């Protein structure tokens, strides 16, 4: 019998796509206001509908077509943070892409960013949730397009934008094609992460570490097939942003029981738990914790330890980290 996990347990979530966390009702409302026909992306219950990972990317991009102005992103950020706060999240990092916010133009990006930051500040005051942003080019848009995105990130590094990463189809291009963008972000003082080892095998994680010199890996779960790599992750303190429900829904693993998160943790890799694109995967962070507790017998003590690890790997200033760590550790 597994321990009941208090849904209000304070949580830190490091891997969340802002547009991917958009509540479907919010996107439907925007589509209606703008007379955009995207009825085909919803199922009969009003949730997002897609066949597989590549179709998921198409549906995702179709949903994004409703997000056209800084004001849309201000409202989106508030809607997303309301959901996260309801999950007990006290600290979140979200991927934001200038590709979807002004098409990579710096002047436009600043306007979008101001709107997103305003919403984050409001949510911090009213909901007690802190949000930081990680700029991500979209991998399958190609290396050329990643350059202006990296420049947008470098120019706007600050209180809100603290990290740089890469998202999208892991099988498109090679990490070494994006070294210019990552070098640009690193030189600007941004912290680095990259999606790898979700669809790509263990080698894709090695490539992200070797070529992009990241300190965290988004997913990274396929590292389990290469135990020398697993030991390297543990020894170097590379934190994995693991999204078990996302992996199961997209078919990377058939179920939670065969998901490697527990085996990675047993080998002392720092694993953290996130939802990736929660409404797309019909999940919440509370549901993820419940399922992990049920399948692996994890307790609130285990989750507190993983949340503390998440904060130690968080892309935030020391004062924010220490403040949130007190909330997480003080919940014992
Ligand atoms: Zn992701």
Summary?
Its cofactor is Zn(2+). It is built from 13 helices and 8 strands. With 332 residues, it is of the alpha/beta class.
Describe the protein's topology.
Elements: E1 11-13, H1 24-33, H2 53-64, H3 70-86, E2 89-96, H4 106-127, E3 130-135, H5 143-155, E4 161-164, H6 179-187, E5 191-196, H7 202-212, E6 216-219, H8 227-236, E7 239-242, H9 244-249, H10 261-266, E8 270-273, H11 285-296, H12 300-312, H13 318-329
Parallel strand pairs: 1-2, 2-3, 3-4, 4-5, 5-6, 6-7, 7-8
This protein binds zinc ion.
Task: Give a description of the structure.
It comes from Pararhodobacter oceanensis. Keywords: Hydrolase, Metal-binding, Zinc. This is Adenosine deaminase. The protein is α/β, with parallel strands linked by helices. The chain has one domain (15-23, 70-329): Metal-dependent hydrolases (TIM Barrel, Alpha-Beta Barrel), CATH 3.20.20. It is built from 13 helices and eight strands. The protein has helices at 24-33, 53-64, 70-86, 106-127, 143-155, 179-187, 202-212, 227-236, 244-249, 261-266, 285-296, 300-312, 318-329; strands at residues 11-13, 89-96, 130-135, 161-164, 191-196, 216-219, 239-242, 270-273. Strands 1-2-3-4-5-6-7-8 form an eight-stranded parallel beta sheet, with helices on both faces. Strand 2 (89-96), helix 4 (106-127) and strand 3 form a beta-alpha-beta unit. The chain is globular and about 50 Å long. It starts with 10 loop residues before the first strand and ends with a helix. The mean pLDDT is 95. Zinc ion is lined by residues 15, 17, 167, 195, 218, 276. The site of zinc ion has 6 residues, from loops.
């Amino acid at each position: 019998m597994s321990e009941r996990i208090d849904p209000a347990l304070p949580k830190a979530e490091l891997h969340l796509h802002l547009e991917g966390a958009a509540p479907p009702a919010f996107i439907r409302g925007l589509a209606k206001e703008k007379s955009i026909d995207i009825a085909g992306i919803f199922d009969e219950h009003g949730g997002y509908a897609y066949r597989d990972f590549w179709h998921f990317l198409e549906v995702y991009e179709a949903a994004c077509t409703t997000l056209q102005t800084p004001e849309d992103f201000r409202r989106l950020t508030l809607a997303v943070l309301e959901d996260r706060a309801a999950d007990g999240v006290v600290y979140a990092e979200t991927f934001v892409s200038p590709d979807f916010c002004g098409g990579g133009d710096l002047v436009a990006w600043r306007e979008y960013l101001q709107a997103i930051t305003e919403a984050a500040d409001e949510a911090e005051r009213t909901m007690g949730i802190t949000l930081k942003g990680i700029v991500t080019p979209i991998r399958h848009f190609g290396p050329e397009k990643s350059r202006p995105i990296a420049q947008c990130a470098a120019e706007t590094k600050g209180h809100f934008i603290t990290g740089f990463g890469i998202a999208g189809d892991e099988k498109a291009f090679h990490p070494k094609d994006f070294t210019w963008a990552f070098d640009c972000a690193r030189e600007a003082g941004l912290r680095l992460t990259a999606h790898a080892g979700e669809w790509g095998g263990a080698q894709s994680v090695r490539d992200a570490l070797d070529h992009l010199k990241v300190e965290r890996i988004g997913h990274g779960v396929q590292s389990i097939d290469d135990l020398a790599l697993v030991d390297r992750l543990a020894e170097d303190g590379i934190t994995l942003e693991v999204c078990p429900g996302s992996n199961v829904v997209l078919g990377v693993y058939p179920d939670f029981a065969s998901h490697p998160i527990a085996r990675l943790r047993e080998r002392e890799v720092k694993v953290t738990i996130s939802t990736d694109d929660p409404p797309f995967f019909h999940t919440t962070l509370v549901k993820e914790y419940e399922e992990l507790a049920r399948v692996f017998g994890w307790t609130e003590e285990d989750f507190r330890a993983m949340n503390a690890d998440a904060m130690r790997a968080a892309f935030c200033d020391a004062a924010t980290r220490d403040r949130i760590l007190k909330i997480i550790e003080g919940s014992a």
